[in-house]
């Protein structure tokens, strides 16, 4: 793995976003919590892309590369793809819609899925480092 420093940095940033999402949720800031949950997932996806020296300037590009090189190849579970796509949709609603319908339940679900996503990415990266 060429860019282990970058991989580690992005994984740590992902965890910071996740911590922010939890704190926002605890303070009933569900829109911002959903947004941070997405960035936790997105940054974890960028961490795994860095293991193969890949990245994109666009969110859609990162997700496309993630799906193509990690999900479709079976390196990462297909559930992770569903998580990142749904998280992106909710983040866009939370950040851009005038009257987004982001409930406590949605924000909590996005937190749980972000946690699952990060753990899967972390596990994959640990296997690479250990292998």
Description:
79% of the residues lie in helices and 0% in strands. The mean pLDDT is 96. With 131 residues, it is mainly α. It has helices at 4-26, 30-50, 59-71, 78-96, 104-130.
Outline of the structure:
With 131 residues, the chain is an all-alpha fold.
The topology string of helices and strands comes to HHHHH
- Number of strand elements: 0
Query: Separation of termini?
Result: 10 Å
| Average pLDDT rating | 96
Determine the fraction of residues in helical runs and give it as a percent range: over 70%
Contiguous helical run count:
5
CATH architecture: Up-down Bundle
- Note the beta-strand portion: under 5%
* Integer count of domains: 1
Instruction: Describe the main β-sheet briefly.
Output: none
Low-confidence stretches: none
C-alpha geometry: globular
Q: CATH superfamily, called what?
A: Nucleotidyltransferases  domain 2
Rg (CA only): 14 Å
**What name does the CATH topology carry?**
Four Helix Bundle (Hemerythrin (Met), subunit A)
Structural class: mainly alpha
In CATH's first tier, which class applies? Mainly Alpha
């Amino acid at each position: 793995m060429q860019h282990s420093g970058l991989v580690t940095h992005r994984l740590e940033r992902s965890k910071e976003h996740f911590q922010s999402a939890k704190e926002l949720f605890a303070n009933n800031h569900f829109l911002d919590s959903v947004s941070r949950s997405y960035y936790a997932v997105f940054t974890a996806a960028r961490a795994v892309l860095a293991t193969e020296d890949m990245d994109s300037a666009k969110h859609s590009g990162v997700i496309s590369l993630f799906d193509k090189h990690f999900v479709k190849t079976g390196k990462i579970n297909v559930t992770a793809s569903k998580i990142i796509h749904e998280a992106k949709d909710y983040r866009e609603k939370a950040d851009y819609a005038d009257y987004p319908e982001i409930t406590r339940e949605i924000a909590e679900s996005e937190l749980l899925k972000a946690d699952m996503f990060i753990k899967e990415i972390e596990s994959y990266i640990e296997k690479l480092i250990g292998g």
